Amino acid sequence: MNTVGVAVIGCGYWGPNLIRNFKALPNCHVKWACDVNEQRLEHIRQLYSGTQTTSNIGRVIDDPEVDAVAIATPVSTHYDFARRSLLGGKHTFIEKPMTRSVRECKNLIDLAERSSLALMIGHTFVYTPAVRKMKEIIASGEIGEVLYISAQRLNLGLFQKDINVAWDLAPHDISIILYLLEEKPKSVNCQGKAHGAAGIEAVTNMSIKFDKGSFATIQSSWLDPNKIRLMTVVGSEKMIVYDDTEPLEKIKIYDKRVEMPRHYDTFGDFFYSYHYGGTYSPFIEQGEPLKVECGHFVEAVANNGNGAKCFSSGQDGLEVVKILEMSSASLARGGATVHISD
Question: Are residues 185 and 256 in the same domain?
Answer without folding.
Answer: yes
